[in-house]
Amino acid sequence: MPAYSKFTQQELPACKPLLTPEIVIAAFALIGALFVPIGLASLHASRQVVELVHRYDASCVPVDDKVGFIQNSRTDKTCTVTMTVPKYMKSPIHVYYLIDGFYQNHRRYVRSRSDKQLRYKSAAHLTSDCVPEGDTADHAPIVPCGLVAWSLFNDTYTVRVNGVVTQVNKKDIAWKSDKNNKFGKNIYPSNFQKGRLIGGATLNESIPLSEQEDLIVWMRTAALPTFRKLYGRIEKDINANDNVTVVIQNNYNTYSFGGSKALVLSTASWIGGKNNFIGIAYLTIGGLCLSLAMGFLVLYMVKRRYVS
Amino acid sequence: MARVRRRLEKLKLSTLYSFALCAKGSTEDHSKIGTAGFSRVVYVNDPDRHEEEGFRYPRNEVSTTKYSLVTFVPKSLFEQFRRVANFYFLVSGILTLTPLAPYSAVSALLPLSVVITATMLKEGVEDWRRKQQDIELNNRIVKVHRGNGSFEETKWKYIKIGDVIKVEKDNFFPADLILLSSNYPDGICYVETMNLDGETNLKIKQALEVTSDLQEDGDFTNLRQIIKCEDPNANLYSFVGTMDYKGMRHPLSPQQLLLRDSKLRNTDYIYGAVIFTGHDTKVMQNATEPPSKRSKIEKKMDYIIYLLLCSLLGIALLGSVFFGIWTKADLRNGELKRWYLRPDDSTVFYDPKRAPLASFCHLLTALMLYNYFIPISLYISIEMVKILQAVFINQDIDMYDEESDKPTHARTSNLNEELGQVDTILSDKTGTLTCNMMEFIKCSIAGTAYGQSVTEVEKAMALRKGVPLGDEIEAGGHKEKQIEESPHVKGFNLKDPRIMDGNWIHEPNKDVIRDFFRLLAICHTCIPEVDETDKVSYEAESPDEAAFVIAARELGFEFYKRTQTSIVIRERDPNQNVADYQYRKYELLNVLEFSSSRRRMSVIVKEPEPEGRILLFSKGADSVMFTRLAPDGRKFEEETKRHINEYSDSGLRTLVLAYRVLDEKEYENFAEKFRTAKISGSADRDEQIGEAADSIERDLILLGATAVEDKLQKGVPECIDKLAQAGIKIWVLTGDKMETAINIGFACSLLRQGMTQIIIALEAPDIIALEKNGDKDSIAKASKQSVMGQIEDGIKQVPTLGQSSTESFALIIDGKSLTYALEDDVKFKFLDLAVKCASVICCRSSPKQKALVTRLVKHSDKVTLAIGDGANDVGMLQEADIGVGISGVEGMQAVMASDIAIAQFRFLERLLLVHGHWCYRRISVMICYFFYKNVTFGVTIFLYEAFASFSGKPAYNDWFLSLYNVFFTSLPVIALGVFDQDVSSRLCLQFKTLH
Question: Which parts of the sequence belong to the P-type ATPase C-terminal domain (chain B) (predicted)?
Answer without folding.
Answer: 895-994
